[in-house]
Amino acid sequence: MSNVFDESTLASVEAQLAATDQLLENAYPGDTGARQPVHTVYVPGDKFTGELPAAWGSNALAAAGDSAGLAKLAAKLNLAEPERLGELVAAKLVSEPIEDLRLDFEDGYGNRTDAEEDAAALSAADAVSAAVAAGQAPAYIGIRFKCFEAPTRARGIRTLDLFVSRLVANGGLPDGLRLTLPKVTTVAQVESMVFLAEKLEEAHGLEAGRIRFEVQVETPQVIIAADGTHPVATLIHAGKGRVSSLHYGTYDYSASLGVAAGYQSMEHPVADFAKDVMQVAVAGTGVELSDGSTNIIPAGDPENIAAAWELHARLVNRHLTRGIYQGWDMHENQLVTRYLATFAFFREGLQAAATRLRNYVHKIESAIMDEPATARALARYIHRGVTCGAVTSQEVTDLAQISLDELEAIALNRSHAN
């Protein structure tokens, strides 16, 4: 019997790996368990009212033809359970048509006079505060301000200041506040955003770390820098826990690589490469990842609407199967296929995932031997489906034979989980 590894040997290894332990604990804390919206909707910064989400849902439902029309479209898209999908999506478009809304003061707003944008930023904050107070606001809401490149830096910072300060003056920041920093090219821009967040918290007496932000990846320099590094990974950690999500910007990024306008899309190879790097960068960090948008809008004549819906549904399914659980929607009619494709994704694999999870939890012998990491992935998949409304709690109980609390515990790897 070997006695080579004594207590001093173990102590030496512990000392050697202390930095690694700290890195894993601090830089890779894992899934936070926070709800990730299935999409982000963009509207011009001066166009938001509390009635907008409900109006978008109502208009989308009307465009599809209510529950029966949704079912017919689902069947045309070769989605399983078309009738059930029609019912669920119709209910979603009434109860929560928009999960995450961004009031855009960048590309969607354009360049106006400082006086105009000042007034719009304050008005937007007032509208958001009123919507939150009235229960009309989506779960997540906020603004995208102009980027930190030299020509727009001061304007973006001023809009951020006005919006956040006005929210505080109106009674406080919404729980689901989202702030989007666009066109990031360097880690230094993220560090500057951290500095500004700290200044806002100090000025308004907010809890340290209260202000977090999303980083929009729209330039190749943040994917591969001049020195060959990947700033998109570094910036997450330079954000000191404030970076909540990375969002891919389809058209700015594609254009910056010289892709002709007619070929720019969410599924172009340059897009896939960027998102592959982003996906690796966020792994284990608790930072979310979102795909971008398509500019092919389901509007106009019926043929165009049908073609755009087919394209959008395919693109949504594509990023879901790649493990990217969020994307952008730019038009109310895109809500139709956002939810049809998303709900279908979570329902089509429900039976198999729930059965495997049931077998794992209750130690039932089967032809598949799942390990804890796979059980967590199965539970997280089902949990996402429940959160967005694609799967009901009764279905979880019936199929997986566990409660929602047990499902969440496994999905988030809590200590009392199996």
UniProtKB/TrEMBL annotation:
<dbReference type="InterPro" id="IPR040442">
    <property type="entry name" value="Pyrv_kinase-like_dom_sf"/>
</dbReference>
<keyword id="KW-0460">Magnesium</keyword>
<keyword id="KW-0479">Metal-binding</keyword>
<dbReference type="Pfam" id="PF22484">
    <property type="entry name" value="DUF6986"/>
</dbReference>
<protein>
    <submittedName>
        <fullName>Uncharacterized protein</fullName>
    </submittedName>
</protein>
<dbReference type="GO" id="GO:0003824">
    <property type="term" value="F:catalytic activity"/>
</dbReference>
<dbReference type="InterPro" id="IPR015813">
    <property type="entry name" value="Pyrv/PenolPyrv_kinase-like_dom"/>
</dbReference>
<dbReference type="GO" id="GO:0000287">
    <property type="term" value="F:magnesium ion binding"/>
</dbReference>
<dbReference type="InterPro" id="IPR054255">
    <property type="entry name" value="DUF6986"/>
</dbReference>
<dbReference type="GO" id="GO:0006107">
    <property type="term" value="P:oxaloacetate metabolic process"/>
</dbReference>
